[in-house]
Amino acid sequence: MSFYPQPNKYQCGPFALKYALVMLGIFKDEDQIGIIAGSTWWAGTDEFGLSRAARRFNCKMKHFQSSNPDDARRLLIQNLKKGYPCILSVKNWEHWNTVVSYQKGKFVVIDSELDKVVSVVTSSQLIKNWKYIEKETGIVSYDGYALIPKFKVHTRAKFTPEKAIQLMYDKNEDLARKWDQYTNDLITICKPRTKLSYNVITFTEFLRRNELNLVKRVANWHGEPTYSELKKILMNMKFVAEVYDLVIPEDEEKRATIDVASILMMYSCGKYGMTPIY
Fold this sequence. Notes:
With 278 residues, this protein is α+β, with helices and mostly antiparallel strands. It is built from 11 helices and 10 strands. The protein has helices spanning 12-23, 30-37, 47-56, 69-81, 123-130, 161-167, 173-177, 179-189, 203-222, 227-244, 253-272; strands spanning 59-66, 86-90, 95-103, 106-110, 118-122, 132-133, 140-149, 191-192, 200-202, 246-249. The strands form 2 sheets. Strands 1, 2, 3, 4, 5, 6 and 7 form a 7-stranded antiparallel β-sheet that branches. A 3-stranded antiparallel β-sheet has the order 8-10-9. A hairpin with a 2-residue loop joins strand 3 (95-103) and strand 4 (106-110).
């Protein structure tokens, strides 16, 4: 799973559900979702197919609707504040996108139809795209589906507008395309913060203590990767850790240092190769 545009017009539904699942720490390929949902090039994906796919991943899609834009927006915000990403039918029911966050009047929207799939929009921009008008009757409707997990979520993403904008910077393209790899590695190294978390450090604090040593050791031992190259990987890890609020127990700091050093060395050997040393 990664953040990139859909390759064709009919896969917007699987992409929308894929991005909603990512917010709950579930990483599934859009092709797999499309098969379960029954997506086709001539008909796309309907809400019944998406609901079927959501159930396969132990979630349910709860429909909400209103003919009043203010009421529809309130319903959307209520679901987002509960931690439920929402899939919206937009462009007169011809397209699906995913809304994952709301802060200070701004919505974070993931739209696989766009080159920069993650964007920040105002309420008026969202409502304009969301509005459906029945041609024959002129009835107006705003329809959405909250993705509700049937399990305890341990790694719920918190995409603030600031984080969303940062992720779409050109310099972060590699992070966007390899989001699931970074997240899966970090979930192994770190732990989600809970109300019972104590004696833990953030990944930012972990890097403050260990970044210089990690970068110097790996770069000097291998000889090919630059300091700045390895630092960029650590910054990518930090970004993901902040989005999912991952922390490291203080008594596991040494283990985490070994884990991160191993990842950096595997990256170096994978990119630059290595001859046997013994």
